[in-house]
Design a protein that fits this description.
Length: about 110
């Protein structure tokens, strides 16, 4: 089977810059970078915040994906670069500023 063509680093950077001109760029950039760190669409949809974040709120550089969300029910690990973590932090900060998905402590 032929391998699908992948975007080069230059092309990915261009896409990320172009997204800044669109509506809701934070969410679009986050979904693009998660797709380019070898996460499958289903994994992106099912991943939980606690999987990406450490208890202190920092974004993990190494993310362990549980078997229940992975293809063929096999757990795996993906690594997030510094650039990916910065973009994900921007998305989290945006959500916090809008108070989206924020629970207040009792």
């Amino acid at each position: 089977m032929a391998q699908a063509l992948a975007l080069t680093s230059k092309e990915i950077n261009r896409v990320l810059k172009t997204i800044l001109l669109m509506k809701n760029p934070e969410s679009k950039r986050a979904s693009i970078v998660l797709g380019h760190v070898s996460l499958r669409v289903t994994e992106i949809a099912l991943i939980q915040t606690k999987t990406l974040l450490m208890p202190n709120g920092d974004i993990r550089s190494e993310v362990f994906l549980p078997a229940r969300i992975c293809k063929n029910c096999r757990p795996r690990t993906v690594w997030l670069s510094d650039k990916v973590r910065v973009i994900l932090q921007q998305w989290i900060d945006f959500r916090l500023s809008k108070k989206w998905g924020v629970l207040l402590p009792n």
